[in-house]
Amino acid sequence: QVHHELAALGAFFRLVELGVHFSAVAFGVAALSLLARGEYTQGLQEPQLFALVGLALRAQGAGLTLGFIPLGLGSAVFPSLLLRSRYVPRALAAWGILASVLLTTYSVGVVLSPTTTDYFYVAMIPMFLYEVGLGSWLLIKGVDVQRSTAQHVVRAAV
Predict the structure, then answer these.
(1) Fewest CB atoms within 10 Å of the CB: 43, 60, 117, 144?
(2) In b/e form, how buried is each residue of 128-147, taking b as 16+ CB within 10 angstroms?
(3) What pLDDT, on the 0 to 100 scale, is given for residue 157?
(4) According to the 3-state scheme, what is the secondary structure of the chain?
(5) How far apart are CA 107 and CA 113, in angstroms?
C-alpha cells in the first residue's frame, strides 16, 4: 500500500528542486545574453563583460548545486517507498536511499565548502548506478503488483 504522505513529501521536494534548477538555468541564459553583446553591454570593456559572464555562470553552478539538495531529499523518499512496497529488490531500493543521502550530503557540503566541487562526479556515481539499475529492473522485470499486494496481505495476517 502506498504511504500517501511520504509520496506527497517526495513530490514536494522534487517540485522545489525543479523550481531551483529552472531559476539556475536563468543565469545561463543571462550569460548567453551578455555574450550576444546587446545594446546594454555597449559601455562595457571586454574584461568587464567576461567578468559578468563568469559571475553569471558561477551563479548558475551554485543554483544547480543548491537544487541537488531537495533533489536528494525527494529521491530518498521514493526508494524508501519502493523498499516498503517490495516492488523491486530490497537491495536496489536500499542502494537508492543510500545514493540519495550521499547526493544530499555532498550538495550540502559544497554549499558549506565550495572547494569540494572537485568530487562532483564521485558523488553522482552512486545515484547514476541506482537510476540505471532501477530503470533496467523495471524495463526487464517490471512490477507484479498483484503478487506484491498478496505478499503484504500475508505479512499483515501473520
Answers:
(1) 43
(2) eebeebbeeeeeeeeeeeee
(3) 55
(4) CCCHHHHHHHHHHHHHHHHHHHHHHHHHHHHHHHHCCCHHHCCCCHHHHHHHHHHHHHHHHHHHHHHHHHHHHHHHHHHHHHHHHCCCCHHHHHHHHHHHHHHHHHHHHHHHCHHHHHHHHHHHHHHHHHHHHHHHHHHHCCCCHHHHHHHHHHHHHC
(5) 10
